[in-house]
Give the backbone structure.
Amino acid sequence: MGTAAASLRMAIVIPTWNGREMLSSCLASLKQQTFTDFQIYVVDNGSTDGTGEFVKKEHPEAQVLRLDTNRGFSVAVNRGIAAGSEPLVLMLNNDVELEPHCLAALADRADAAPEESIWTGVLLWAHRTDLIESGGLSLFHDGTPAILYRTQPLNALPDQPEEVLGAYGGLALYRREVLERVGVFDERFVFYGEDMDLALRARLAGFRCALVPSARGVHRHMATSSRRPNLSAYLQYRNIVFYIWKNMRAGLLWRWLPRFALSGFRPLLLSPWRGLGWALVGAKFSILWHLPYLLLERRNVRAARKVADAEIEKLFVEGRSCATAEMRPPAKAPESENTNPGANV
């Protein structure tokens, strides 16, 4: 998967799109890390704000990988993964600032727990640093994504690392062998849900994930969903069905899918002049269009399964939710953060 200095242990892949201001803070936080054995790969996803030139001038330690157009999160991070050969690969959002000991905590856990292959850190809301944005991924029992510890205080975190279903894509560390064995991010997802899909594929293949509570960063939450709400709703709705079709056992598949087949019509009936209902209907047609691909991928994933479904389902959480609700911050952020032009996709 490319070449890199043999002495380096970690690749840090940062996708960015017109995110120069956010990226500056992110890269500055990497210079403050107590762990320094890493190479940074900034994937410029078709930016028009001079991001590439800025990085080359102000942060020459980072390699810049340029895409001509914005091709989404999955394509960008896959390009960064392929550029290096470091045994550990960190996915990092461009609007995250890491605490100085964050990378050391992740690397130390990787050394101490050879039975684990994926780790997720803790992200805090930038406008409410007393509250947690993410402590990893799981699923509710209705198939929708559960972002662990969201909106809970810091004292809710465990004292020691604990097993979780998967890593939240904004701050996720993988052994490269996992990505070589189960594949990288599915580029058909574009953005939303690609980290859940990878989490399920990896766990089914026998790779375990742990939350490292001492590895923390502050997330200046992206405004992609507020700038492109219908596209975001379309992808969230569609991609939940994508990862269910690809990865889950038949019993859950047939229990969950009728709910998604019947949902989404209410906004169309109540407010047909708005785009949300039509976006969800479009998502249904997209699912049908991609069904042959999903069935083929499902066969491949299930054939590689080494862990019983019951073991994975023990990591699900109680309750039910919806993806759009999961994305909402606990309170409205200051205007300067809510209009962030530096989203990753």
User: Anything to note?
Assistant: The longest strand covers residues 208-219.
